[in-house]
Amino acid sequence: MEHPHVAILSNGCCTSALPPDRFTTVTIHESLEGLPALNLDLVLIEFDDPAVAFAQAERIQHELPAVAVVLCGPPLDSGTMAKAMRAGIREVVTDPGPGELEEALDRSLARRQRLKEAQTGPFPRPQGKVIVVHSPKGGAGKSTLAANLAYRLRETGAGPVALLDLSLHGGDLDLMLGARTNATWADLAESELFGIDEIESALMPCANGLRLLAAPSLSEEGDRVDAKVVERALTLMRERYAFIVIDTAAVLSEPILKAMDLADQVLVPLPMTLPALRQVQRGLSLWAKLGIPASRLSLAAWSASDEISQAEAEKVLQARITFPIPHDPTGIEDAMNAGEALIRLQPRGAFAKAIARIADAFSDRPTPEHGGQGRFQWLWKQISQQVRRNDDVSTQKA
What are the residues whose beta carbons fall under 8 Å from the beta carbon of 276, sequence distance 6 or more? Predict the structure, then answer.
């Protein structure tokens, strides 16, 4: 198999980290004139001066739009990183450790291949599904539910999954999941014309292939993110991600309302307490007035034996609770302290099973990808799941 062709615009700062047995490389200095004749897959720009590197990257992307670009050099501050995103740079690697530069090149080449296939494929890609997790009650477990649902959807193998932290004035999903923040919503908002490559650069990799877009690190930066930014991001991401799960703040803002308006499903976590019931009751009334269809809403109740019953809650809300969830405050706290999702720490626990039921309900639908043999495999999966459920019921009765 032929290795990818990589041109290295070198000042010597990163070349030693690039494995020679993986890539066919050519090193150039300063002049970009000969690049079109090299039949390149990727250009690696090693830099000391970010401004010079950005100008070189913009020129390459203008003249060779099919060629991936990766920058490698010293660490950048958040403002300079935002400028890199606005320049359309896919990957910026700073002080790479063992294998990090190779991984960045692989990601860029994979994106290049996906774009090529999307442009030349005979069939349109199915649109991804947007799931918003929102409750007007603070402390309702929105972040816990969103993070664990996103992980479970990724585990199903249905396709790539992104988790977005739209709690713009204090969201901490990156801390919960132990992810390192490179860029946030605020960086995307710096440019009105950001594209999917800028979004990909802002997304942080988490365990199991999940990608996270973090909330701004400073509360005041959240004001930069308006409804237009959210709409553009979701429109672009639907083309690439099978599922987009969005965590939100309790206070209904224009960006959150836009996300709910665009969502396929809105999952509402509900602590079984009187204050929470009152807040959700008011929320249901408000959402109806704002045009959010009740058919998109699913209530997920945190159940506990000494609290209000499901029947009593449904009577108060005049709405059905779709998903009961076992309340495990100790397990949730342990997971947060470990920087992990609870379903990854306790994959066979009652909470993980409840999350799996929610994920199955939101993803259990045939799509254009299920045509032909794929549709048969999907149908067989449904039959097998029903057989297992019947077996479980029989065992319990016995």
Answer: 135, 137, 140, 270
The better pLDDT of the pair 73, 117 is held by 73
Q: Are strands 211-213 and 204-205 parallel, antiparallel or unpaired?
A: antiparallel
> Which tokens in the block code for residue 51?
């401004």
Instruction: Tell me which fold the domain 129-366 belongs to.
Output: Rossmann fold (3.40.50)
CA atoms within 13 A on the CB side of 291: 6
Name all contacts of 57-62 with Cβ < 8 Å and 24+ positions apart: 57/87, 57/88, 57/89, 58/87, 58/88, 59/32, 60/32, 60/35, 61/88
Task: Tell me the backbone φ, ψ of residue 42, rounded to 5 degrees.
Answer: -155, 150
- Sheet with 161-166: list strands edge to edge: 204-205, 211-213, 161-166, 243-248, 129-133, 265-271, 297-303, 321-326
Closest C-alpha among 111, 114, 66, 73 to residue 92: 73
Q: Bridge-partner residues for 267, per DSSP?
A: 133, 298
Q: Which of 117, 90, 129, 171 is nearest to 296 (CA)?
A: 129
* CATH for 5-120 (3.30.2270.10, 3.40.50.2300, 1.10.569.10, 3.40.50.300): 3.40.50.2300
Chain segment 308-337, per-residue pLDDT in tens:
888 899 999 999 999 999 988 888 888 888
**Per residue in 128-140, pLDDT tens?**
999 999 999 999 9
Burial degree of 310 (CB within 10 A; 0-12, 13-18, 19+) = middle
Expressed in angstroms, the distance from the first to the final Cα of the chain is 58
Q: Is residue 395 classed exposed, middle or buried when 0-12, 13-18 and 19+ CB atoms within 10 A define those classes?
A: exposed
Enter the pTM of the model. 0.64
d(CA 289, CA 300): 22
Q: Is residue 132 within 8 Å of 234, Cβ to Cβ?
A: no
Give the per-residue pLDDT at 17.
56
